[in-house]
Amino acid sequence: MRDYWVALAITGLIACISIWIAARSFNMIGGRSRSESRLARLERRVDAIAAHVGLPPEPVPAGMDEVLALLADGRKIPAIKRYREVTGAGLREAKDAVDEIDRHRAGA
Asked: Which tens digits make up the pLDDT trace of 50-61?
């Protein structure tokens, strides 16, 4: 009978750890991490300060119109590929940037 309770306790512990890992993974995949949210807030503040002091906006790289056209056609993967060609960004950075462009485009 004692082995039953030990096995039950171990199973419960494994279940708790699995749930914790799943919850952490969901937080990292489903939403922004804490540092990403903070970085986004800081970028908005810097943009506001730059606009207030009269700094010109960052120039848009040539070829971004193609990225926008691909997004308008619903071709996200080719848009990410073109974004990488235009900016030299890595895959993750390009995907995040194109997702952000798409969110702003859809909201506008």
From this structure: 888 887 777 777
Quote the DSSP letter at residue 31: S
- Torsion angle in degrees (nearest 10) through CA of 54, 58, 59, 65: -120
User: What is the domain partition of the chain in residue ranges?
Assistant: 33-107
**pLDDT tens sequence across 37-53:** 777 788 788 888 888 88
Cα separation values, 84 from 30, 55, 90, 108, Å: 24, 26, 7, 24
Q: What is the DSSP string of 16-62?
A: HHHHHHHHHHHHHHHS--HHHHHHHHHHHHHHHHHHHTTPPPPPPPT
